[in-house]
Each structure stands twice: as C-alpha cells, then as structure tokens.
Write a structure and sequence with these properties.
This protein is of the alpha/beta class. The chain folds into two domains: 146 residues, NAD(P)-binding Rossmann-like Domain (Rossmann fold, 3-Layer(aba) Sandwich); 160 residues, L-2-Hydroxyisocaproate Dehydrogenase, Chain A, domain 2 (Alpha-Beta Complex). The protein is 46% helix and 16% strand. It has a six-stranded parallel beta sheet with strand order 3-2-1-4-5-6, sandwiched between helices. A three-stranded antiparallel beta sheet has the order 9-10-11. A two-stranded antiparallel ribbon has the order 7-8. Strand 4, helix 6 and strand 5 form a beta-alpha-beta unit. Helix 5 crosses helix 6. The protein is globular. The relative contact order is 0.13. The N terminus is likely disordered. Bound molecules: 1,4-dihydronicotinamide adenine dinucleotide and oxaloacetate ion (OAA). The site of 1,4-dihydronicotinamide adenine dinucleotide (NAI) has 33 residues, from helix 6.
C-alpha cells in the first residue's frame, strides 16, 4: 500500500473529483502476460482510470475477473480473442497500452524479436487505428525502436496518423537510471532524475549523466554506469534464465507513463516524461523517431524538448545511437511497406 500511495498519492486524495470530472478508458493488449498482468493490476489501483479493458489471445477474461474483485471504483472487462472482442475492447479508449509480444531469452537481442513481434504489433495497430483512431498508443512490445515506426506506418496507411498520440515507452530506462545512480551515491532514487534519450536497446539508450545531480561521475565509474543502464534489460534476461525479461519493473514503468498521460489529459501542467516519439530533433539526419523529454498535454505530446547541453562523452554516445536507431526505424517502415 505504501508503494501505491507513493505512486498515486496525490491522485488518490483527489480520487473523487478526478473521476467525477473525467472518465478514462484504458485498454491493455497482451493483458495476460508477464507485463500485462501486473500492469493491469497497477491500472486497477489508479483512480484516474474508470474503465479497464483487457485483451489477450488467452486468459484476458480470467485476469479481468480476478482484478474485478479489487475494491476500487473502475470497471474491468476482459474480451474474447476475436476480431469483435478486440474491437469492443478498443472502442472508446483514451489510452491503449501494447505489451503483447514475445520476450527475449538469454543470448538474444531485442532485434531478434522483430520477426515475431512486428506482425503482432502491426495487426493490433490496425485494429486500434480502426476502432479508436484518436487514442494515445503506448508501445511496450520490443523492439520498440522498430515497433513504434510500424504503428506509425499502419496509421498513415489508414489516413489517421497523429504523431502526437504515438509513444514508445522508454520509462524503464529512466526508472533504472535513477535507481542505479542512487545505488552509487547512496541517495534516495526518488530524488534522482536522469534524462535518457535516443531509443530503447543497447547503445541507442543514451543516459545524460552530465545533466543529472551527479555530473562528477566519471572515468571507469561512468563507463560502468552507462553500460549498466544500456544493458539493464540483459541483466534481468540473464537472471530469469530463459523465463523471460523484465516484467514487474516494466509494469511499474508503464503504469507511471500512463498515469503521466492521464494527469496531463486531465489538465495538469508541466508533466514531462522522456519517451520515443515522432520527433523533429534528428530528422535532418534521417532519424524520424527519437526519445527525449516530452511535455504531455491533453493532445498527447505537447512539446518535444531538445537534448540540451551535453559533453563530449555524451556526444560520442549520441553518435553511436543515431546510427543504430536509423536502421531500426527503417526496418519497421520497410516491414509494413512489404507486409501491409
Ligand atoms: N519497452 C520496454 O521497456 C520493455 C518491453 N518489453 C517487451 O514487452 C513484450 C511483452 O513481454 P512479457 O509480458 O514479458 O511477455 P509475455 O510472453 O509474458 O506476455 C506477452 C503476452 O502477449 C500475448 N499476445 C501475444 N500475441 C498477442 C496478440 N496478437 N494479441 C494480444 N495478445 C498477444 C501473449 O498471449 C502473452 O500473454 C516483449 O516484447 C518484451 O520484449 C519487456 C520489458 C521492457
Ligand atoms: O531486455 C528486454 O528484452 C526487455 C526490455 O526491453 C528491458 O528490460 O528493457
């Protein structure tokens, strides 16, 4: 309960006025999975959510029945794995979270998931574009650097693309950064805020330690910290030893991002989260999508902030990032062109 209060404290205190003012339907696609279940649990505890719609190719009605006994006001419903079930789940949603897709096993890169997850995300995006074209779409399924462009291409092909409403969820990189830096400095991670830019895999993850409270971290310690943030996902994949990747920390990160969007949609100003969006920042270098700090608003991505002042070390990281990112993005775009 402490955790929930810490996460949703302010929102809980204002629960009545929030729900009276705004009714937010949130859909989770892949709701029965390792991420989907704890993510749905956290959303059930969020008083800003009035309807929770769960879809999966298996078990969504069961997960919904279980969550529906929790004594918070929102209504939970699980949908059958049929086209009409999916359509009903999506219709009227303000936020659609997509953790559907296979996770990594040891030795795999996120890009190795492309062959399986690209078509899963493409098909779910098609359904979302038809049933809820104005919803905010939060892509969790990997490889995020490619699955977000896949969604964009699908929406473009249907003439309903709104770049302000499509987000790759990179919050876990931010969450990890604040935790890992707090472990080095012996501080409370709640006081640590590290901006992470770029994308969501390996060297495309660029933490800007020079902009944190600890620009003094340098040398081998900086190398180790940056490496741990870039390859934090691998740490979990290895520890789970074939049984998947980060699920619980990802659920927390996804719930945090959804909460930020809901806050912004419900009128709160100054809500900023790093996230992977259709971005003007490096388009001149052929990089169409990029994660940076984004101010959220009722219209989705309200303001995309530039990377800001970085040092030589970070310029090197950024250069490596942009090269990889461009290829990952193009792969997603090409996939939809070849497999519409
Ligand atoms: N963005 C990020 O920071 C992170 C992303 N991920 C990614 O999230 C994805 C999900 O990971 P887990 O939950 O651990 O996997 P999981 O295998 O436990 O769960 C995936 C769920 O998706 C469902 N599913 C598969 N195809 C579907 C379809 N067509 N429609 C609806 N549901 C479908 C499965 O039935 C399953 O319940 C993976 O691709 C993983 O790499 C994982 C951690 C962090
Ligand atoms: O590492 C993975 O495959 C899952 C993931 O994206 C993460 O934990 O950051």
């Amino acid at each position: 309960m402490f955790f929930v209060r810490q996460m949703f404290g302010q929102a809980q205190r204002r629960a009545f006025s929030v729900s009276a003012r705004q009714s937010s339907k949130v859909a989770v696609l892949g709701a029965a999975g390792g991420i989907g279940q704890p993510l749905s649990l956290l959303l059930k505890l969020n008083p800003r959510v009035s309807q929770l719609a769960l879809y999966d190719i298996r078990l969504a009605p069961g997960v919904a029945a279980d969550l529906s006994h929790i004594n918070t006001k929102s209504v939970v419903k699980g949908y059958d794995p049929t086209p009409s079930g999916l359509r009903e789940c999506l219709t009227g949603s303000e936020i659609i979270l997509i953790p559907a897709g296979v996770p990594r096993k040891p030795g795999m890169t996120r890009d190795d998931l492309f062959n399986t997850n690209a078509s899963i995300v493409r098909d779910l995006a098609k359904a979302a574009a038809d049933a809820a074209p104005d919803a905010n779409v939060l892509v969790i399924a990997n490889p995020v650097n490619s699955t977000v462009p896949i969604c964009a291409e699908v929406y473009k092909s249907k003439g309903v693309y709104n770049p302000k409403r499509l987000f790759g969820v990179t919050t876990l990189d931010v969450v990890r950064s604040s935790r890992f830096i707090s472990e080095i400095k012996g501080t409370d991670p709640a006081d640590e805020n590290v901006t992470v830019v770029g994308g969501h895999s390996g060297v495309t993850i660029v933490p800007l330690i020079s902009q944190s409270r600890h620009p003094d971290i340098s040398g081998a310690q900086l190398d180790a910290l940056v490496n741990r943030i870039q390859f934090g996902g691998d740490e979990v994949v290895k520890a789970k030893d074939g049984a998947g990747s980060a699920t619980l920390s990802m659920a927390m990160a996804g719930a945090r991002f959804a909460e930020s969007l809901l806050k912004a949609a419900q009128g709160e100003k100054g809500v900023i989260e790093p996230t992977f969006v259709d971005s003007p920042l490096y388009k001149d270098q052929g990089v169409e999508f990029f994660a940076s700090r984004v101010e959220l608003g009722p219209e989705g991505a309200h303001n995309i902030y530039p990377v800001g002042k970085i040092n030589k070390y970070e310029e090197g990281l950024l250069e490596a990032c942009l090269g990889d990112l461009k290829k990952n993005i193009q792969k997603g775009i090409d996939f939809v062109k070849a497999n519409p």
